[in-house]
């Protein structure tokens, strides 16, 4: 028996244009050698330039800026972890028994292969961030409280982003539960009105998670390198030190990292203080 | 002319700051008077309270008195005392640590727990009763945590101990002490809680204050006048009763209370040696601030001027300059408010000029009040400007009055020492004119002005924030909370007040001679306040300079510490 199906039109939809996705990506792009944080900061500046003027603020445009910033944070994590896996032998050990798709194995360059490992990983909650660091950097024990605090604050920003991406800014029940149902109950299914200060704060929190992670991981991976790596002579040690420095150094912001040699000297100073049980 | 005879060649040795006095002396030296009696009662009564007064009004004194009284009398509640005057040591964290607020939270809770240990030792009781109550209750670790957080270090201790502290731990400690002391309720005396130079911490502090308010705990915090809101969740008028401690010069008991303060802190022969008219004059010139009154008396007793008038002129001039310098120092401490502080200074000068002119025109009436019209569209920055003047004690706020619809006036008394120096009370009867005016009936209407008439157009333009331009492209910032440049997108750098203080060169400390600074420069690495403050062995490092031994090194360290304390208070 044939079922009745009406053939009415309530809105007109013309023919779909074609979208040649294969031509939409910049194939001439060569991955720059800049550090992950430099990349993030440069992207952030570009996004900030797109932000609505505070004197003619637009809430919807503000949501789009927020999406851009969260994308930049996620890209920071992917870039950093990928390069760490390539550079650091302990990170490589962590990644060794993990599988990538056949397509990635066939077509990605060796350097980009770790990116395929990260495809299933998300960076939107405290748990997912902690898990990613444990899984790919091999961190053990408690993570420092300032790092966890930035993860928690950033997870809140991700909830707002979730509202913006999936619900055109309206607050869903799951988001409200995460943010605290009691305080957010009146806002359920209400649209997000990102103000200028709120957008600035969300961007600052996102940048905070990047900078705190960057500091933490730099210290973590550098400190666990075998003691035999270091001779306490810059001329010999720079071969091992500089790749790590370049991976983490901020060379673009107005509060940029001090030069490699100065950081190296501080590092050796702290190592020698530690070996003689002097507080640093 | 009135002659003064110094009671003896001995220098009057008394301490003006209550935080430097022993509990015994605190106990014996508290002045009576309705304002203080009421404040004492309120401090030990139920319910949250804010003890309001500018510096030197006796907030610390009265809190420590209440502490000693509660310790002594079994029918009083358990009272714990802690001070938060070093909060600005944690200010650099705001610029470099994402979890600065949580660390500040731990610092406050650790200080509260230490106050519980202090209570046990003051009561001569065994501290193990508290240390056995919870694994985190270790006096030594808590003290170390506080010291390290104040120095911006102590990562490990914060991880092990600090981040685990919660308000519940404080409640638990208080309950333990209530059992030990057989008392049913407690008051927490939280001194120096104005936290006026770090808004982020102020909000966090009053969040804790709110949580401490329970059926068996009444928190009491001492704050500066002028503020009415302490963060989004704490509204002073709803959450706590305000107890005003700043004595009005118009109070009928004023002279007696101030006299009482001197009697309790000076030797009778010292007081007897001062002409009564001058004693009376100094009471009013100190403008309700006991600490100022004691300082004026001390300076009078050690003055080497010949005539009494010269003596009083000298010390009052020094006093007004000191207050003015304290006010002006806000421009350095809070650079974003530099123009506003300057505009406030101009407004105050003009107000003094106008009030003094009106008062001197007819000294048969008391005409010392300035009415300032509440404009409909007064900006928050103009309010902030007036608040700075009140916080420092240059303007005494009275209840606003209404002169009809849309004509409400805020009322203030400008500092009497400034009016006196401007000849408001007649030049001829220099020692009695002020006292006579205060006792005269008050004028029917105060001098009425508007901010715009006091400041005029050129002053009004200064009511703006001084925000440094973007360090990258030079574009002016739009507001204080802006974090990224709206023109080039660059992150805006914020300077730390604490770090500004640490950068002060030793040569800028007036009490260290230039010769000493040169020697330190030649023989040591000590250049700035921060070098001395951060040194692991400051005394040893300073002693590398010629003619600097342990005593001189100790003096330099004390002077540096005083500068830090002054800068950050």
Summarize the structure.
The complex is a heterodimer of chains A (280) and B (569). Chain A has 280 residues and is mostly helical. Chain A has 12 helices and no strands.
Write the layout of secondary structure elements.
The complex is a heterodimer of chains A (280) and B (569).
Chain A: H1 36-50, H2 59-87, H3 89-95, H4 102-107, H5 113-117, H6 126-137, H7 145-167, H8 173-179, H9 181-184, H10 196-223, H11 234-248, H12 260-275
Chain B: H1 23-29, H2 34-44, E1 49-52, H3 59-72, E2 78-83, H4 91-96, H5 100-122, H6 128-131, H7 139-150, H8 155-160, H9 167-181, E3 186-191, H10 199-212, E4 217-223, H11 236-239, E5 241-244, H12 254-265, H13 268-272, H14 276-285, H15 290-302, H16 308-328, H17 330-333, H18 338-361, E6 370-373, H19 380-392, E7 395-402, E8 408-414, H20 416-421, H21 433-439, E9 447-449, H22 451-460, H23 497-502, H24 514-523, H25 529-534, H26 538-542, H27 550-567
Parallel strand pairs in B: 1-4, 1-5, 2-3, 3-4, 6-9
Antiparallel strand pairs in B: 6-8, 7-8
**Total number of beta strands of chain A:** 0
**Estimated share of beta-strand residues of chain B:** 5-15%
| Number of helices, where a helix is a run of at least 4 consecutive DSSP H or I residues of chain A | 12
- Strand arrangement within the widest β-sheet of chain B reads 2-3-4-1-5
Tell me the major beta sheet of chain B: 5 strands, parallel
Based on the structure, what is the oligomeric state of the protein chains? heterodimer
Shape of chain B: globular
Structural class call of chain B reads alpha/beta
What is the distance, rounded to the nearest whole angstrom, between the alpha carbons of the first and last residues of chain B? 40 Å
State the low-pLDDT regions of chain A, or none: none
Portion of residues within helices of chain B: 40-55%
Give me the count of strands of chain B: 9
Uncertain runs of chain B with pLDDT below 50, 5 residues or more? Answer: 1-13
Strand-residue fraction of chain A? under 5%
What fraction, in percent, of the residue positions of chain A are helical? 55-70%
Radius of gyration of chain B: 25 Å
The average pLDDT score of chain A comes to: 91
């Amino acid at each position: 028996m044939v079922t009745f199906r009406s053939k009415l039109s309530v809105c007109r939809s013309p023919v779909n244009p074609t979208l040649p996705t294969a031509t939409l990506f910049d194939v001439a792009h060569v991955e720059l050698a800049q550090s992950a944080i430099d990349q993030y900061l440069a992207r952030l500046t570009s996004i900030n330039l797109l932000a609505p003027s505070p004197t003619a603020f637009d809430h919807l445009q503000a949501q789009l800026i927020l999406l851009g910033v969260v994308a930049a944070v996620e890209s920071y994590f992917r870039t950093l972890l990928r390069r760490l896996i390539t550079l650091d032998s302990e990170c490589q050990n962590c990644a060794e028994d993990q599988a990538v798709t056949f397509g990635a194995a066939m077509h990605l360059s060796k350097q980009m292969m770790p990116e395929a490992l990260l495809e299933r990983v998300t960076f939107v909650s405290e748990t997912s961030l902690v898990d990613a660091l444990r899984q790919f950097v091999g961190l053990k024990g408690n993570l420092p409280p300032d790092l966890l605090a930035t993860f928690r604050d950033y997870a809140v920003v991700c909830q707002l982003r979730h509202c913006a991406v999936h619900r055109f800014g309206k607050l869903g029940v799951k988001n409200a539960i995460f943010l605290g149902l009691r305080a957010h109950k009146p806002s359920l299914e209400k649209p997000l009105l990102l103000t200028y200060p709120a957008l600035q704060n969300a961007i600052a929190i996102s940048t905070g998670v990047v900078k705190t992670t960057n500091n933490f991981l730099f210290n973590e991976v550098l400190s666990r390198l075998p003691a035999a790596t270091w001779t306490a002579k810059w001329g010999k040690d720079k071969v091992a030190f500089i790749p790590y420095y370049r991976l983490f150094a901020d060379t673009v912001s107005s509060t940029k990292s001090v030069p490699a040699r100065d950081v190296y000297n501080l590092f050796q100073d702290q190592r020698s203080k530690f070996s003689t049980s002097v507080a640093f | 002319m009135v002659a003064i005879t110094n009671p003896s060649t001995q220098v009057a040795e008394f301490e003006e700051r209550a935080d430097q006095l022993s509990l015994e002396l605190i106990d014996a030296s508290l002045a009576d008077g309705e304002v203080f009696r009421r404040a004492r009662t309120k401090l030990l009564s139920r319910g949250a309270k804010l003890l309001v007064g500018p510096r030197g009004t006796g907030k610390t004194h009265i809190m420590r008195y209440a502490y000693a009284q509660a310790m002594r009398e079994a029918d009083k509640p358990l009272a714990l005392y802690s001070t938060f005057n070093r909060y600005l040591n944690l200010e650099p964290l705001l610029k470099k640590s994402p979890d600065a607020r949580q660390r500040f939270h731990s610092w406050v809770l650790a200080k509260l727990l230490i106050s519980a240990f202090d209570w046990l030792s003051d009561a001569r009781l065994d501290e193990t009763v508290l240390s056995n109550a919870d694994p985190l209750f270790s006096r030594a670790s808590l003290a170390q945590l506080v010291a390290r957080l104040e120095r911006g270090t102590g990562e490990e201790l914060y991880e092990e101990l600090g981040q685990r502290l919660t308000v519940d731990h404080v409640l638990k400690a208080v309950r333990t002490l209530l059992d030990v002391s057989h008392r049913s309720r407690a008051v927490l005396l939280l001194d120096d809680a104005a936290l006026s130079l770090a808004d982020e911490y102020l909000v966090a502090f009053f969040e804790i204050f709110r949580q401490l308010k329970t059926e068996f705990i009444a928190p009491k915090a001492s704050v500066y006048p002028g503020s009415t809101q302490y963060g989004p969740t704490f509204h002073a008028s709803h959450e706590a009763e305000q107890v005003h401690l700043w004595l009005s010069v118009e109070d009928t008991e004023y002279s007696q209370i101030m006299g009482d303060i001197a009697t309790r802190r000076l030797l009778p022969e010292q007081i007897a040696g001062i002409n009564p008219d001058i004693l009376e004059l100094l009471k009013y010139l100190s403008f309700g601030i006991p600490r100022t009154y004691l300082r004026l008396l001390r300076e009078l007793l050690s003055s080497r001027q010949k005539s009494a008038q010269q003596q009083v002129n000298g010390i009052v001039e020094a006093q007004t300059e000191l207050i003015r310098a304290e006010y002006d120092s806000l421009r350095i401490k809070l650079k974003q408010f530099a123009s506003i502080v300057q505009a406030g200074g101009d407004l105050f000068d003009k107000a003094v000029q106008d009030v003094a002119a009106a008062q001197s025109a007819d000294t048969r009436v008391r005409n010392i009040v300035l009415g300032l019209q509440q404009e409909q569209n007064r900006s928050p920055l103009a309010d902030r400007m007036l608040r700075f003047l009140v916080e420092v004690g240059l303007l005494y706020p009275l209840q606003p009055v209404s002169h009809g619809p849309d004509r409400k006036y805020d009322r203030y008394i400008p500092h009497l020492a400034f009016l006196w120096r401007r000849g408001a009370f007649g030049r001829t009867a220099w020692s009695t004119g002020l006292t006579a005016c205060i006792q005269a009936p008050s004028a029917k209407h105060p001098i009425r002005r508007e901010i715009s008439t006091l400041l005029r157009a050129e002053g009004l333009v200064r009511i703006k924030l001084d925000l440094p331009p973007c360090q990258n492209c030079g574009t002016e910032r739009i507001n204080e909370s802006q974090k990224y440049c709206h023109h080039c997108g660059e992150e805006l750098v914020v300077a730390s007040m604490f770090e500004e203080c640490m950068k002060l060169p030793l040569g800028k400390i007036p009490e260290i001679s230039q010769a000493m600074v040169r020697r330190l420069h030649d023989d040591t690495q000590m250049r700035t306040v921060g070098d001395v403050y951060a040194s692991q062995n400051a005394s040893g490092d300073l002693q590398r300079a010629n003619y600097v031994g342990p005593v001189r090194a100790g003096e330099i360290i004390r002077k540096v510490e005083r500068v830090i304390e002054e800068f950050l208070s």
